[in-house]
Amino acid sequence: RMHSYMIVQGEDNVHTAMAKTVGLPLGIIAKFILQEKIILKGLHIPILPEIYNPVLKELEEFNIRFEESFE
What we know:
By secondary structure, the protein is α+β, with helices and mostly antiparallel strands. Helices cover 41% and strands 17% of the residues. Strands 1-2 form a two-stranded antiparallel sheet. The longest helix has 18 residues, at 17-34.
């Protein structure tokens, strides 16, 4: 069995953990589309590695990361 934990902390009443985890991934994906780092056409949910791998990597720069443990 594997457990995955998201580690993120809010800064204040405006820059909450919820605001970061909703806004930052959307902004990162928009930036990648404008930079043509993501060139997929149409509507996609973020289950494709070409979407989630670069986004997760950049989220680490904002101190948002995932930790996994195995039982």
